[in-house]
Specification:
This protein folds into two domains: 2-158 and 329-347, Glycogen Phosphorylase B (Rossmann fold, 3-Layer(aba) Sandwich); 177-327, 3-Layer(aba) Sandwich (Rossmann fold). Helix content is 34%, strand content 17%. It is built from eleven helices and 13 strands. Strands 3-2-1-4-5-6-7 form a seven-stranded parallel beta sheet, sandwiched between helices. Strand 9, helix 5 (215-229) and strand 10 (233-235) form a beta-alpha-beta unit. This is Glycosyltransferase family 4 protein. InterPro entries: Glyco_trans_1, Glyco_trans_4-like_N. One of its GO terms (molecular function) is glycosyltransferase activity. Pfam families: Glyco_transf_4 (PF13439), Glycos_transf_1 (PF00534).
């Protein structure tokens, strides 16, 4: 098939540091190319891919301080996709909803994977106004806030099986510290992770970025806890993909104390790829990703999380890795999307209208 992948421009594909959506787009694109498909990736110019790259901007917007209007490049990106639409059998968007009006007159099947939260009040009227546009959810729980959406399917994320692997020899104990990986924000719960670690007496290593919007939260709610904990908590900052295997693989467990309806939680399967169990709060997609008592523990609060941490050694890290390979490989993800592409291609392009 001739497939277009349209990525966000905030990060490169794959991202240099943090960037879950862009990493998934990269994994999907490379697997589709490996399977013999003709893929064009619309992304920033610093992206690296085996597909044809149509570079919209020279580098990722987050890394370019000269860019003030980040919306303008995305509008340009959609315009370029529309101009080239006749070259593709299907167009796959990963940019939320900016393409909806532009695609109304395009005679090519398309779909959009929604990677973010859908419980914001302004979103529902927008999707209700485009009832024919096909969307893909990244977990079934992600769908709950929206009704009347044309869901083409749910496709769980996947990672290459050869990038993140257990970093220590089989049988060697990894019990020196707990890990927190991702982004410093209230919904991700780094403050809860610190309290959990301190209650267990274990070290906590935090590898996370701090976006500008979350700087006040970090300074007022997180940094004081880190300073109070002293040597028990280490804040590393953002790490790249090459550092993740050692960081996650060397941990006794990953703490995922989220306080929001997490659409997927890529870090959970990154930990699983390293054979590392996860202790996660029962929110959003967590029950769809984790198998309680197998790949980690699903808990309701900080007290039960502390108890779960003390049981991490009872879980088999080889089984965790095998579960990752079975359920969350990039190849499985690509095959799931190909099934949707073929179904859309056979059905033809939806006749879009604004309700």
């Amino acid at each position: 098939m001739r497939i277009a992948q349209v990525a966000p421009l905030a990060e490169a594909v794959p991202p240099k540091l943090y960037g879950g959506t862009e990493r998934i787009v990269s994994n999907l694109t490379e697997e589709l190319v490996a399977l013999g498909h003709e893929v064009t990736l619309f992304a920033s110019g610093d992206s690296v891919t085996a597909a044809e790259l149509d570079a919209i901007v020279p580098c990722a917007l987050r890394l370019d301080p000269s860019v003030r209007d980040t919306l303008a490049p995305t509008v340009l990106q959609v315009s370029r996709v529309v101009r080239r639409a006749h070259e593709f059998d299907v167009i796959h968007f990963h940019i939320d909803h900016l393409q909806l009006l532009a695609m109304r007159g395009v005679e090519v099947p398309f779909l959009t994977t929604l990677h973010g939260r859908l419980d914001l009040p302004e979103i529902a009227p927008l999707f209700a106004a485009h009832p024919e546009a096909p969307f893909v959810s990244i977990s079934d729980s992600q769908r709950r806030p929206l009704h009347g959406v044309n869901w083409a399917g749910t496709v769980l994320h996947g990672l290459p099986t050869d990038v993140l692997r257990p970093s220590l020899p089989q049988g060697r104990r990894q019990d020196g510290y707990l890990a927190f990986l991702g982004r410093i924000s209230p919904e991700k719960g780094p403050d809860a992770a610190i309290r959990i670690a301190r209650a267990t007496g274990m070290r906590l290593r935090i590898a996370a970025k701090v976006d500008r919007v979350d700087e006040e939260y970090y300074e007022t709610a997180v940094r004081p806890l880190i300073e109070e904990a002293g040597d028990q908590v280490e804040f590393i900052g953002e790490i790249g993909e090459s550092q993740k295997a050692g960081f996650l693989g060397g941990a006794a467990g990953l703490l995922f104390p989220i306080d929001w309806p997490e659409p997927f939680g890529l870090v959970m399967i990154e930990a699983m790829a390293c054979g590392t169990p996860v202790v996660a709060f029962n929110r959003g997609s967590v029950p769809e990703v984790l198998e309680d008592g197998v790949t980690g523990f699903i808990v309701e609060d900080e007290i039960s999380a502390v108890a779960a941490v003390r049981r991490l050694a009872s879980l088999d890290r080889g089984t965790i890795r095998q579960t990752f390979e079975t359920r969350f490989s990039a190849r499985r993800m690509a095959e799931d999307y190909l099934a949707l592409y073929r179904k859309l291609a056979q059905a033809g392009r939806p006749q879009l209208r604004v309700a």
